Amino acid sequence: xxxxxAELPLVAIVGPTGxxxxxxxxxxxxxxxxxxxxxxxxxFYRGMDIGTAKLPLAQRRGIAHxxxxxxxxxxxxxxxxFQSMAREAIAEIRSRxxxxxxxxxxxxxxxxxxxxxxxxxxxPDIRAMLEHELERxxxxxxxxxxxxxxxxxxxxxxxxxxxxxxxxxxxxxxxAFSSFMPEREYVSPTLQIGLNGDRAELHARLxxxxxxxxxxxxxxxxxxxxxxxxxxxxxxxxxxxxxxxxRVLDGSSTVAQASEETIVATRQFARRQLTxxxxxxxxxxxxxxQPDLGEAAAALLKAxxxxx
Length: 308
What we know:
By secondary structure, this protein is of the alpha/beta class. Helix content is 50%, strand content 9%. The protein folds into three domains: 154 residues, 3-Layer(aba) Sandwich (Rossmann fold), CATH 3.40.50.300; 57 residues, Histone, subunit A; 73 residues, Helix Hairpins (Orthogonal Bundle), CATH 1.10.287.890.
């Protein structure tokens, strides 16, 4: 059985946060004997459960989930490292005759796992110099410099971490960071299924989810992670909800303010996710609200890969 299924495709379930990707992944995994691979970069962190909407173990229906909880909040990883780990997980799952299902809304991490994609190296000295300049001069100065050497990247990215990375790559290779994003080409047979729906309903879903996180103890989760190094880590403390509720614990915000700020930030993040995934013409879009969602997703898979 395993030998016959060794060349099974990779299924990637994409879309904005709150669209039901995890649930659909479980449905397909049950139907096609699959296992899930996490591509949500904030679910890499141990202890960041409530605020990342990490599916509790008891709700995973016995389906194996890979690449969750492998970092402490003090640690960090790179897209290139994730690419290696994800492809190892995909190969290992296939070797056991199981269907690999990538699920998560971190766009670049998804593409790193799916596509023929080259990642340039890093240089800690260059990175440190750029981070010092960022702290000293501000983000606008670095964005202006990036505009001069790589206007394509400057138009696409607006967060400090990625601006620093783009400038580091240019300094290291002499090439624009955007040149490392080639034509879309899957590294192995793949089906992408995107979930989308009514924008007002998504906004309502996200508001309910944030309020549910608060009710479930998000502020206590944030408090418990502080002695684990949440403030010291480069990435974890910037996660949606965590940065807002750190301010509550610092006394500079209230639970109500932090909740509303998290809702707004999550809606903005969902919009950016949709922009990213809509740019990929290979995504097969389904409405998350359709009653036969699981059947529709299964039909897409069977249509492209009848051997599954």
